[in-house]
Specification:
Distance between the termini: 121 Å
Number of strands: 21
Radius of gyration: 43 Å
Shape: elongated
Strand content: 25-35%
Oligomer: single chain
Length: 555
Amino acid sequence: MNFTRWSARLPGTQRRAAAARAEHPVTTTDRRSEGSGPRSVPAARAEQLTDEPPPVPAVDELPAREVLDRVPALVALVHGPDHRLAYVNDAYTAAFGARPIGEPAAEALPELRELGLMPLLDQAQRSGKPRTLKSRKAPDGRSYTFTCTPVPENHGESAVLVFATDVTDHAEAGERLRASERRQRETAVTLQRSLLPQELEEPDDLRIAATYHPGGTEAAVGGDWYDVITLGGGRTALVIGDVMGRGVRAAAVMGQLRTAVRAYARLDLPPHEILQLLDGLAMEIDANQIATCVYAIHDPNEGRLVYASAGHLPILVRDESGTVLRADEPTGPPLGTGGWMHASGSIPLGPGSTAVLYTDGLVERRNEDLDEGIAALERALAGATGTPQVVCDRLVRSAGVTADHDDDVAVLVLQHPARTGPDSELFRNAALELLGGVEAAPRARAFASGVLTSWRFPAELHDLGVLATSELVANSLQHGIPPMRLRLRRTDRRLIIEVTDGDDHLPRRRRAEPADESGRGIAIVATIATSWGSRRTPGGGKAVWCEFVLPKPTD
């Protein structure tokens, strides 16, 4: 193919040729000389070899007024100290209507005044630097981002160019996103709160309050939880935990662990055995999800809080004198790590004492050591008096927890009140050491009868209490080993009868055949009592107990 023949038709060639002719015009003499001399290169071929770009008009030569009139953004120009209107473009007029030129902006541009742009004009004029106001909804219902740029003028007065970009679509999308996040957060918080106890159980010997504050404004709530479980026999289990991570998944794992704690608590095991069971369950639920937890048991007869901790923060106890104790040991690794034998410890919790169980959101702060947060909580607890709910609220306030706090916070406060006056008569204890032999059962019945009479129980409850005492003592004498002990306890709500011995074999209720000579004692106790149960004691042996709910006093 003859490339020279077609080069003149290639795109751009004709334009370059025209530019070359304009720059180097060919005269008649030149044409004549071209024809008379040797054959030269065709003009088309010479034009093809020219690679100069077409001339571009300079920016300074662009008509600024025509450009501003045609841009889709809103443009206005004001000048002078009172910002008199000098110009608005077509887009501005289409959005807000015609505006009087020469009038002050406060009157000529009322929409800017309503949006709060007048101080922005002053700032841009004084500083000589642009100022921006993002996503403001104008009177026309649309949203704009305004930029005020100072423009120097020839007469010494500075002008300000107002440039407004329509961001309505972005603003509406952002609002829809925020509304969706709010709904998601409300759903997540509702789920979290529904998994927490709706009402705390109320033990006879403790006064308890709890609070939960979801962290931040995002939907990703955490897995903090707490619970109070009455174990029977006057004992109470208290638990608080924190599933690592955030979101619905953490809340779901929390709900499963809380349900498991309540189920395991019914076994009335020591705290470290409860955590051992939870550790295995946490690994089954999600091997990648770990949780911290404290499980504690309060027995009013012992005046101590027996606990086990799986990587959780220490329990704090303020005694009757105001001294705050920290239960630091023993602490094992979090639940879900496996391969660790947890251990139980104890801390005094006598009458007049207050204990606090909490999650890390209460004491952990960025750029601050965790021990400093715990020490601050100790100081706050030392000065916090009043009911458990009052103490709870004061501790939360002292820690600076607000609605936009960046972590979940759970706090559980329990008090063992010191009872005086008439109230103390409703909480009584009596105990008898049982010696083996045929005389043990009659002595126990006589002791129970005398105690229940002195406590002024009704005749029916007196007889049921003596019968239950007789059956529990007989069961211990037949199946247990020394040392044996009978303990009677009354509260303002119930009568508790408990027998301990040195054998760790737990009794169970079974159906006795007509020919059987034994097996009816526990069945009788279970029939006449409100509830009954048994547990192994820490030093070896067991305790078997039953409860009778006291009749409510008549007015």
